[in-house]
Design goal:
- By secondary structure, the protein is of the alpha+beta class.
- The protein has a domain of about 100 residues: Umud Fragment, subunit A, CATH 2.10.109.
- It has 4 helices and 6 strands; from the N terminus they run H-E-E-E-E-E-E-H-H-H.
- It has a 6-stranded antiparallel beta sheet with strand order 1-2-6-3-4-5.
- A hairpin with a 2-residue loop joins strand 4 and strand 5.
- The longest helix has about 50 residues.
- The protein is elongated, with a radius of gyration of 27 Å.
- It starts with a helix and ends with a helix.
Length: about 200
């Protein structure tokens, strides 16, 4: 009889220990994800304060200079200051619908009728772009790129990320917060003592 009771106690203790381990793992995982998200937000806001704008690379045309999945940081500069070798962000000329911005390198500059025309090319592309850019005012020039950071931004823009990570994490952290608020005085201290 005593042996059965002892074994049941051991099983309960192991189950409680496993639950505490899972709960602790979920807490630290949630904390890590929240910390990464906060760091990403702070980095983006901080970059903007210093005049840089994040640009997520969806294509691989720039090769190692700004690989697909990276976040490129762009600085606004005057069109007059652009030179051969600069990597710029621009909207391709279009006669119809507005095209998305793209990032390519300036490979040549020529002056026609007092206007500077830029020829661009992706580092990983075999041929130059089929247009001449007449840029005026201010535009974006690549300063540096952070590899793989774009995947993080992409993931958290999807519904799967919200349903699988964000919402469960918010619910779990909310549950922990409410549990601490509604817990009777001294109960959290008692739980800590039991855990040790």
């Amino acid at each position: 009889m005593g042996t059965v009771a002892a074994s049941e106690t051991v099983v309960r203790w192991q189950a409680r220990r496993s639950f505490r381990y899972l709960r602790g793992s979920a807490y630290w995982f949630g904390l890590a994800v929240a910390s990464l998200a906060l760091a990403a937000v702070l980095a983006t806001v901080g970059a903007r304060l210093f005049g840089y704008f994040p640009y997520t690379m969806y294509g691989g045309s720039m090769g190692s200079a700004a690989p697909v999945g990276s976040v490129a940081f762009i600085q606004e500069v005057s069109a007059e200051s652009l030179q051969v070798g600069d990597v710029i962000v621009f909207r391709p000329p279009s006669t119809g619908e507005v095209r998305k911005p793209m990032m390519h390198r300036i490979v040549s500059v020529e002056e026609v009728d007092g206007q500077r025309l830029f020829t661009t090319k992706g580092d990983a592309n075999d041929s130059v772009d089929p247009w001449k850019l007449g840029l005026t005012g201010e535009g974006g020039r690549l300063v540096f790129a952070v590899p793989y950071a774009g995947y993080f931004f992409w993931f958290f823009q999807t519904r799967a990320a919200w349903f699988l990570v964000v919402l469960p994490l918010v619910a779990y952290l909310g549950f922990l917060a409410l549990r601490r608020i509604w817990a009777p005085p001294g109960s959290t201290e008692a739980e800590r003592t039991q855990a040790t």
